């Protein structure tokens, strides 16, 4: 657990030990949550008004950071990822143009509504169930400002559950999910944690938020994981058969008959030769161009996306993985914006 996380918990324990009335603590928690949502709401309104005033955009990607790392089963470094990804997006070492020619400096292509203040909320003793609701509500606030669509910066993979829940609920129906990862993240409750980053897709499928779930790049899966895939009807594409599946995966057509497509990219789907800055290093993964071919050739209306599990504390070679995560965000932006 991080120093900040311990500090927040200790502060909450002191309040309890001082016999502070629970109603007073809850009132304080509610004020912090409302202030957090107000911040996201006003930023989203401002960016939405700007994009609508400029005109011509049917869909625009909007960055929302969720710096949450405490649901990781190993390291909590992903909590520090959102600012590092932003820094890499705009660092100046490359121009702000996507591979297909969209300009990231155009607000009709990309805006930013900032971060959900996860640590501040946890410092007040807010539990994970309420925290996940705050994440969901934050996503909905972005989606209320047409044509903004959420492009979420993790954070560990536990954030995908509240984000996809919000997207499905706000759109009023199921989505198809393209999930790139070394792991299926579908344990019932990994190490007893219902909200574990290793359990996020179990929560998503139990909630009925997805019609189809395609998991690509899998190369670390237990028997429980395989059983869960069968239970939920997951379309599993493992690295050991990737050469056989490549043509199909590079020509996907998703989203017809549902509310759209959601793309979730765990940075550890990539081979560590391309992205060493992750908590769970698993050799034998996708190349960066493999990922780009799958994403860029995807046919479907992308209504939301996330890039998760980049761990700056394990990054090497002058922030190489930060640049990889930023490139993933940039090219997802190009797929969302239209």
Describe this structure in words.
The protein is α/β, with parallel strands linked by helices. The chain has a domain at 20-168 and 258-334: Arginase, Chain A, CATH 3.40.800.10. The chain contains eleven helices and eight strands. An eight-stranded parallel sheet has the order 2-1-3-8-7-4-5-6, sandwiched between helices. Helix 5 (128-143) packs across helix 6 (160-171), helix 6 (160-171) runs parallel beside helix 7 and helix 10 (288-297) packs parallel to helix 11 (320-336). The chain is globular and about 60 Å long. Its cofactor is Mn(2+). GO terms for molecular function: agmatinase activity; arginase activity; metal ion binding. It is an enzyme of class 3 (hydrolase). Pfam families: Arginase. It catalyses: L-arginine + H2O = urea + L-ornithine.
Concise summary:
42% of the residues lie in helices and 15% in strands. It is of the alpha/beta class and 338 residues long.
Furnish the topology, listing elements before pairings:
Elements: H1 3-17, H2 22-54, E1 60-66, H3 81-89, E2 110-115, H4 118-123, H5 128-143, E3 148-154, H6 160-171, E4 175-180, H7 200-206, E5 210-218, H8 223-232, E6 235-238, H9 242-249, E7 261-266, H10 288-297, E8 302-308, H11 320-336
Helix pairs in contact: 2-5, 3-11, 5-6, 6-7, 10-11
């Amino acid at each position: 657990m991080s120093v900040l996380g311990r500090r927040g918990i200790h502060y909450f324990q002191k309040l309890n030990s001082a016999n502070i009335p629970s109603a007073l603590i809850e009132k304080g928690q509610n004020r912090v949550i409302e202030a957090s949502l107000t911040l996201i709401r006003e930023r989203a309104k401002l960016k939405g008004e700007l994009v609508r005033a400029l005109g011509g955009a049917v869909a625009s990607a909007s960055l929302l950071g969720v710096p949450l790392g405490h649901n990781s089963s190993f390291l909590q470094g992903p909590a520090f990822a959102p600012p590092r990804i932003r820094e890499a997006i705009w660092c100046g070492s490359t121009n702000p143009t996507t591979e297909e020619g969209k300009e990231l400096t155009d607000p009709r292509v990309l805006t930013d509504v900032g971060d959900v203040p996860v640590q501040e909320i946890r410092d007040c003793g807010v539990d994970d169930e309420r925290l996940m609701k705050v994440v969901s509500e934050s996503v909905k606030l972005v989606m209320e400002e047409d044509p903004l669509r959420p492009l979420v910066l993790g954070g560990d993979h536990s954030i995908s559950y509240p984000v996809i829940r919000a997207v499905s609920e706000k759109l009023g129906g199921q989505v198809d999910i393209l999930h790139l990862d070394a792991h299926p993240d579908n344990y019932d409750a990994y190490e007893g944690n219902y909200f574990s980053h290793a359990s996020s897709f179990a929560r998503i499928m139990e909630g009925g938020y997805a019609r189809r779930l395609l998991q690509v790049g899998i190369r670390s899966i237990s028997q429980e994981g395989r059983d869960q895939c069968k239970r939920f009807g997951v379309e599993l594409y493992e690295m050991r058969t990737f050469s056989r599946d490549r043509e199909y995966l590079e020509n996907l057509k998703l989203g017809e008959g549902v509310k759209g497509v959601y793309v979730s990219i765990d940075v550890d789907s990539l081979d560590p030769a391309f992205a060493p800055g992750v908590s769970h290093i698993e050799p034998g993964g996708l190349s960066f161009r493999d990922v780009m071919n799958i994403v860029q050739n995807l046919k479907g209306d992308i209504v939301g996306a996330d890039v998760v599990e980049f761990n700056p504390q394990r990054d090497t070679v002058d922030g190489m993985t930060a640049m990889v995560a930023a490139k993933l965000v940039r090219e997802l932006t190009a797929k969302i914006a239209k």
